[in-house]
Specification:
The chain is an alpha/beta fold. It contains 6 helices and 7 strands; from the N terminus they run H-E-H-E-H-E-H-E-H-E-H-E-E. It has a 7-stranded mixed sheet, with helices on both faces. Strand 2, helix 3 and strand 3 form a beta-alpha-beta unit. Helix 1 runs parallel beside helix 2 and helix 5 runs parallel beside helix 6. The protein is globular and about 35 Å long. It starts with a helix and ends with a strand.
Length: 155
Amino acid sequence: VYYRLLYEWVRHVKPKNVVELGTFWAASAYHLAHACPESRVITIDIDPASKVKADALKLPNLTALTSDSVAAAELVKKDYSPIDVLFIDSEHSYKIAAGEWAAYRPLCRDGAVVFMDDIAMNPGMKQFWAEVKDPKVELHPLHVAGFGAAVKRGE
């Protein structure tokens, strides 16, 4: 169900730069890129097979990168910032999610929406979600392990 939310959000907002952390099967990357062909979408995953899946979509506005998500932040800063929409959906652990938040939140423009998957999956993800201080909303009906959105407000 959250694919529809991502699609509709991007279709209506028409963001310039969209960043997804965690490609997996590239389903969300497809929805993000297909929703607004004018948006530049980058999806990042450590697994090379995920890049193959994203590249197979052949969407001209979608770039897939094989990298550790935190390590890729410098490239994103250079080529895809400020970020208008960020989707955090990589490894569902406190350490990774908190590291991605620390690396990517500063790259988001004020007012950017950050979607986060699996925020209730385990104690670490619950802790991460609890530590997000920006205005946020839980949208748990969208995913069995929880789903949330935050709006970046200032530094």
